[in-house]
Structures are given as C-alpha cells and as structure tokens.
Write a structure and sequence with these properties.
The chain is of the alpha/beta class and about 500 residues long. About 55% of the residues lie in helices and about 10% in strands. The strands form 2 sheets. It has a 6-stranded mixed beta sheet, with helices on both faces. A two-stranded antiparallel ribbon has the order 7-8.
Length: about 500
C-alpha cells in the first residue's frame, strides 16, 4: 500500500457455526505478531433470516511513539479493502450494502450455497442464481476470488473459517508474512486439518480462485445408469424401469426408492404403474413431460404426515448427520431438541377415514383437541421420546386407510388423470399440467393453499372445452406468486372471460 499509515479495512460475513469469531481471533493474533493493531466490531445476524454475522476489522501499524490511534467501529461504504463472505449469497449482500467498490475492494467468497428462509419459503423457485451473483461480484469488485470452500474443508474435516483464513492470506492484501498465518493456524485443536485447508485455500487464492485440474478426474460423462438389483423383487422393478425412456431413468429410480422407504414395495409398484401408463400415452416427443410428471408424482405420493415426520426424526443416518454437523466426538453425548406443532387437521389425517371425518365435523372435539395441542419442544435424545417417535413411525403401515391418505390420493389421481388426458391431445399441454405438480409444497396453511389452487386450475381444465398450454402456464405462475390471492384470482377471472 502506498500509505503505510492508512488503515486496512476488512468486512467478514459468516453464518452461524462457520467459525467467524475464530477467524477474527486468528486475524487479530496475526496482526499482533506482525506489529500491527487490529480493532474489531461484530454485529450478529439471525442465521439466514437477516443475513450472517458481520465482523468489521481495521488494521494499522502500531505507532512507534506508543500512541493509540482512534479507529472506526463501523464499516463505511466504498472504503473496504477486503470483503469476505462465507457463502455466495452473502457476497451479494456485500454488494447491495455498498461494501464492495471496483477501485478498492478485494472480494473473497465461497461459491457454495446455504439457502435462506425467503428462498425456502417461496411458493415457486425462490432460489438465487449463483452464476448471476458471481458475475455481479466479478464486475463490481477490484478483484474477485471465489471457489467452493465448503467442499475444500469437507475433504480436510474442518470448518470454513480455515479456508477463509487461507484465502485472505493468499490474496496478499494484508502485508503479513505467510509464516505468521501458518504459525497462528497451527496452534490449538485440529491444527493439522486447519493447516491443510489453509494451504490449499492459499494456493486457490494465489491462482485467482480457479479450481485445480486433476488429470485423473474423468468426470461423470456417462450419465445415470440403472444399478443392478440384488433381490428378485428388485430385479423386476429395475427391468420395468429399463423399459421406460432413458431420459427419465434417474427420476423414476430415485422416486421408487423414496416410496419404498416411505411406505413399502407395493407403493413403489403403484408409482411405476402410473408412470408406465403415462409413458404408453406419450410418444418420444413427450419424454420431458413424462420425466416431470414422474418427478412430481413421487414427491407428492411421499407427502409428509405425522408418521413420516417421526420416521425422518429417528432414522440412524439423521442422528449421525447431526453428530457430524456439530463435530461431536464418538464418546460425546449430544442433546437434540425437535420442534413440533401438530394441528387438529394433522391428527385427524392419521386416523381411519371415518373417524377422522367425524373429528373434523365436530366443533366440540376440534376445540377440545386443539387446547391439548400446540407448539412442543421434544428431546429426541431421550429414550421415552425416541420410543414414542418409533411408535408413530410404525403407524405408516396403516397409512392407506387414513383420512389423510384418502384426501391426498384423491388430489393426486385427479392431477395425474389430467396429465394423462392431455397426453393424448398435446404433449406441451401435458407438460404444463405436469409442471403444476411443483405447486404442491409446504405444510399446514401453505399446503392447503397450494393444493386448493391446483384443484382450481384443474376445475378450469374440466370446465373449458379448449384449454391451451399458455393458459395453464399463466394460471400456474399466478398461483405460485405467494400468499396474496389477487394475482391468481385475476388470472382465473381472465380465463373465464
């Protein structure tokens, strides 16, 4: 830097559990050993609801006369030398806040995604385009260093902060020796893993953030291939899948596997029967419609009810995933608190159809049961709660006789029947109706809203003598705009006009 007395300003955005505080402490220690002062301020976010925790650091050479310089507590727009984001969407937030300038800022970001609440809760596809974010970052930063740090640290069994530390050092914006960085990260617990991640991140930053070419990695050029079965029943299913168009093999295989886990083999055979029926009705021009219908059919048939939620909560791979995420030692006990909020409708859905209908029809029963229900925090690491979850999960064997299954299956059959009807007339119309399957998502009020809107679209199909693919696309897009019903009602009225 031309002016050695000028402070170097850094902003770091890190999500919870990614070691943002540890990274800050490492940088403070490096500055101290290099004879610099470092002042830090942090502003906590609420995970992805309001963004990551923001750490602001100012570095300045320690005055020879022993005086204490006055440094800023908050970052200033357009005056940031290094902006660091532990996830690419946070880099986009850096841009929107004005922390990144093309004249001054080196932007360092991991390209992996951690989806935000607004992305997950959107009725349609609410995800941010990472390619667009990367393009914007490259355009508005003086220098942009990006690579998948989550993948990197996963191979070294450490956390993102170690890779961020290496990328910061490798960018060489801070005038500190590499040996100092290595000495600091080589101390404490997990030093070997941290050092390995640091070294690889340093190399990536030195090369501008590009990936490293591995001549032995041939990639996946062959595409998906149906696996060999190990049982007689499995061989029958696989052979039925082989008879379907190659384009849909992976979707159908994943869908059938999900449904076997969700219910049983017969349920997966039921799914395959419906897919085969649609494949017979469609010619080669309808492969896309077949694939999309198979995708959303499998997802809808695996609708989440109380037995399914209980099954997912206590499965062994989930318990191990939690231990891996919090990096618990094999002998270290952990406490797992689950949040439940069952509604009367969900209790009725798991009852036999006749009893469930009676429960919902009785205001007295609904009111009394409603007072007993409500938000619950349950410790699934406790034996009593775990056993209750196991019992609830086993109730899935009775699922086909429940009210919830009857209601969901009725809507599934109506939607898939419309796709079959359209397949005999226009593959494009069949595709648009198949795409309506992605409207079904969420739970509670969201689930009721999305399925009711889909049923109203199907009402339009039943009512109109001629319905075009463009009309279905218009209704679907309006239905997926969110909770506000005005766009959808307007599109319906236009359809009726």
């Amino acid at each position: 830097m031309s002016d050695s007395s000028r402070a170097i300003n850094m902003v770091i955005a890190a999500l919870g559990g990614e070691g943002g505080g540890v990274l800050t402490n490492w940088l403070i220690a490096v500055a101290d050993q290099e004879g610099w002062l470092c002042q830090t301020t942090s502003l906590a976010g609420v995970a992805q609801r309001t963004g990551a925790t923001i750490y602001y650091l100012e570095f300045i050479p320690r005055p020879e006369d022993g005086s204490q310089p006055v440094l800023s507590l908050f970052p200033s727009q357009g005056d940031i030398d290094i902006a660091v984001a532990s996830e690419i969407a946070e880099a986009g937030r850096m841009l929107s806040r004005g922390f990144v300038s093309p004249e001054q800022t080196t932007l360092i970001a991991s390209t992996h995604r951690v989806y935000g609440i607004t992305e997950k809760s959107a009725t349609g596809d609410g995800t941010i385009d990472p390619a667009m974010l990367s393009e914007m970052c490259a355009r508005y930063a003086r220098r942009f260093i990006q690579f998948d740090m989550l993948e990197l640290v996963g191979r070294h069994n450490t956390v993102v902060s170690a890779a961020l530390f290496g990328a910061i050092a490798g960018s060489e914006v801070l005038p500190f020796a590499r040996e100092t960085f290595e000495r600091i990260i080589g101390e404490g617990r997990g030093a070997d893993a941290n050092r390995a991640a640091f070294n690889e991140a340093w190399d990536r930053a030195q090369s501008g953030g590009v990936g490293l070419f591995d001549p032995n990695d041939k990639g996946d050029s062959s595409g998906f291939v149906l696996p060999d079965a190990h049982t007689a029943q499995g061989r029958v299913l696989i052979e039925r899948m082989r008879a379907l168009p190659v384009m849909c093999h992976e979707v159908v295989y994943r869908g059938a596997s999900r449904l076997i886990d969700y219910q049983d083999l017969a349920y997966a055979e039921d799914y395959l029967f419906l897919v085969e029926k649609l494949a017979t009705a469609l010619d080669s021009a309808g492969s896309v419609a077949l694939t999309e219908a198979a995708r959303y059919l499998a997802l809808w048939m695996a609708f989440e009810d109380i037995p399914r939620v209980a099954q997912l909560k206590v499965r062994p791979d989930r318990q191990q995933a939690i231990r891996d995420e919090v990096r618990a030692e094999p002998e270290q006990p952990i406490r797992v608190t689950e949040f439940f909020h069952p509604r009367v409708e969900e209790i009725a859905a798991m009852l036999p159809k006749r009893f469930g209908e009676r429960l919902l029809a009785s205001e007295t029963a609904r009111s009394g049961l409603g007072r007993l229900l409500g938000p619950r925090k349950l410790r699934t690491d406790r034996l009593s709660v775990y056993l209750i979850m196991r019992v609830l999960a086993r109730l899935r064997r009775f699922r086909r006789g429940t009210l919830g299954y009857a209601e969901e299956r009725g809507m599934i059959d109506r939607w898939f029947g419309a796709v079959l009807w359209a397949s005999a007339r226009d593959p494009e119309l069949a595709l648009e109706l198949a795409e309506c399957g992605r409207m079904v998502k969420g739970y509670g009020a969201t689930r009721a809203r999305t399925t009711s809107r889909l049923m109203r679209i199907l009402d339009t199909v039943d009512r109109e003598a001629e319905v075009s693919p463009a009309r279905i696309r218009q209704l679907r897009e309006a239905a997926m705009e969110g909770e506000d019903s005005a766009p959808f009602e307007g599109a319906l009225n236009q359809a009726l006009a």
